[in-house]
Amino acid sequence: MSSSSSSQPPELPLKPVPGDYGHFFFGAIRDRLAYFYHEGRDKFFENRIQKHQSTVFRINMPPGPFISSSARVICLLDAISFPVLFDSSKVEKRDVLDGTFTPSLAYSGGHRVCAYLDPSEPKHTSLKSFFLATLAARHNNFIPLFQTGLTELFNDLEAKMSSKKEAYFNTLSDTMSFNYVFRLLCDKSPSETQIGSKGPKLVDKWLLCQLAPLGSLGLLPNFLCLIEDLLLRTFTFPFFLVKSDYKKLYDAFSEFGSSVLDDAETFGIERDEACHNLVFLAGFNAYGGMKVLFPGLIKWVALAGEKLHKRLADEIRTAVKAEGGVDFSALDKMVLTKSVVYEFLRIDPPVPFQYAKAKADLVIQSHDAAFEIKKGEMLFGYQPFATKDPKVFENPEEFVADRFVGDGEKLLKYVYWSNGRETEECTAENKQCAGKNLVMLLCRLFLVELFLRYDTFEVEAGMFMFAASVTFKSLTKASST
């Protein structure tokens, strides 16, 4: 399944990449309006797969004019072509975190932080090694700190359910997520610092100003969509709108993350640059990811229904009883719980987009054909299509809780949520998520603590900007533990 010409099966025909970009300005606007308003994200890609009879084709991706210099990309929408986006020998990941544009460096203190660096850049290895060492040093705090946060979340959830008969989950989850990340990295609760309870709002404003050109509020009727499009995608939002907010975050991490920053100096990283990277890691990568991650997990488990809830509760409570508590050993015995998390990450990955530029002329193959790519062309992968490839996964659109149990584990190599294959490990030399293993642990731990405390629950789910919007409608306390 290599994407190189040397291993290309002879039976696959070499074809030109179908599709056209149209006029550099009007073609980009046309595709942008279709993507956000006239068709919607998934239909936008589905319709073009049907039109071209190919999962590889040319298209324009937002934001386009006047924010990005070029909106032109080659889409990779199947499980075979998609992994070339992880191959650092064939593609470059320099300044492609947000796709075809890069927000002002003012949002990260004037530094190109690790997320924007390609592995070929020496500073990438230093910063990634620093991140991995920071997480490794806090390994023993992963579970107890998260349990503390979940206890606070569930108490707040129950209080709101008691008073209002429903509870909006996202706000509670955001508070828990920010507090967890800050406590983990700074050994202090945000409430004991100048940030207080404002952490999530400070980061949300900072994130929104960077990512607004890539999203839609989804609140306006179609005839007013041009107004939103002009507001969000004519010019990038200036940093001064959140300058004071960012300074509060930077100052807090500088003061209370001092032990982490001391370690950074041993990796040859200057303290100021390390602190800006720490804020980005905590705010963009960790908290920003959790804003999408936990509501999505709760949504899919809720929609799976009470039968799955009972199976999870039985497995979790049995393992915890046998091990005498919640620890790594108990978690390893929960095969269904682990599979449920993998299935969520497959069907609804928290970061759905991947971008990279071809380092040289190469050949990429899909299931049906091979395509010549020129050096410098931008490659784009929409991950939910790759991980719902019907030629790899049976019933790909269905949430199958035990899909990755037993022989199903063989399919994990096609789960790409972490900027790499699930079967591969993060290193300082690749772009795989530094917190890959921690994300898996926290998702499993979330389900464990949820079903130790409750038998079943119901939610109302929608979408807002980049994340699932989840409101609890019912919550049934555990009948037994």
TrEMBL record:
Keywords: Heme, Iron, Lyase, Metal-binding
Keyword Heme: yes
GO molecular function, one term: iron ion binding
Coiled coil ranges: none
Co-factor requirement: heme
Transmembrane segments: none
Pfam families: p450
Annotated heme binding sites: C433
UniProt-listed Gene3D superfamilies: Cytochrome P450
GO biological process: one example: sterol metabolic process
Family assignment from sequence similarity: Belongs to the cytochrome P450 family.
Protein name, UniProt field: Allene oxide synthase 3-like
